[in-house]
Amino acid sequence: MADVVRQFGNDVRCGAPLMFEQRRALLDIERCRTVALGGHRETYECGHVVTAYNSCRTRNCPSCSAWKSRDWVSQRELDLLPVNYFHVVFALPHELADVHPMARATVNDALFFASSKTLLEFGRKHLGGQMGFLGVLHTWGQKLTYHPHVHYVVAGGAYDKKTNTWKSAKAKYLFPVRALAQVFRGKMLAELRRRKLPGVSDADLVRILDAASRHDWIVYAKPPFGGPKQVLRYLARYTHRIAISEHRLLKVYDETVTFAYRDYKDGSASKQMTLDGDVFLRRFLQHVLPRGYTRLRSFGFLGNNGKRKKLAAIRAILGTAPPEPPKERECLCPICGIGALVDRQMLEPWTMLPRTRRDTS
Question: How far apart are the C-alpha atoms of 94 and 99, rounded to whole Å?
Answer without folding.
Answer: 9
